[in-house]
Specification:
Elements lengths: L1 H20 L5 H9 L2 H5 L2 E9 L2 E6 H14 L2 E12 L2 E10 L2 E12 L2 E10 L1
Parallel strand pairs: 1-6
Antiparallel strand pairs: 1-2, 3-4, 4-5, 5-6
Length: 128
């Protein structure tokens, strides 16, 4: 019985440890998409980001990307955002989600990389 309990505890510890290594998408990023808070989302943008919003796709500065997100969220006010899939490996994480707005749904993809002990968005795509 004690051996079985030790195994269960070991598995639980491994699950917690693996979650720490492969940290989930920050809650603040999810909340920023849900509320259309481009300033909060901007805190996670890399200095230069590969950004695609509908037909506009290029590498933009953080400031340019924030302005584009502001414009998008003003045209398409979000009502909800749900991550439907996420994955990755040590040092990088990606997520795919559905952004529900007052004017329809959009597919959102973003890639986070660990940089100076924090997660930074390197790629972001918002597609119909």
């Amino acid at each position: 019985m004690k051996t079985k309990l030790k195994r269960i505890l070991l598995v639980a510890c491994l699950l917690v440890f693996s979650h720490a290594i492969f940290a989930a998408v920050p809650d603040a990023v999810v909340l920023a998409f849900k509320t259309g808070n481009y300033k909060e989302l901007g805190k996670y943008l890399n200095a230069n980001i590969e950004l695609a919003i509908l037909e506009n796709e290029d590498v933009y500065s953080k400031t340019q990307a924030e302005l584009m997100l502001k414009d998008f969220f003003s045209k398409y006010p979000p009502t909800n955002f749900v991550i439907i899939h996420e994955g990755g490996k040590e040092g990088s994480r990606y997520a795919i989600g559905t952004l529900t707005t007052s004017k329809g749904e959009f597919r959102v993809y973003f890639l986070l990389k660990t940089q100076d002990n924090s997660q930074v968005i390197h790629q972001l795509r918002i597609e119909k």
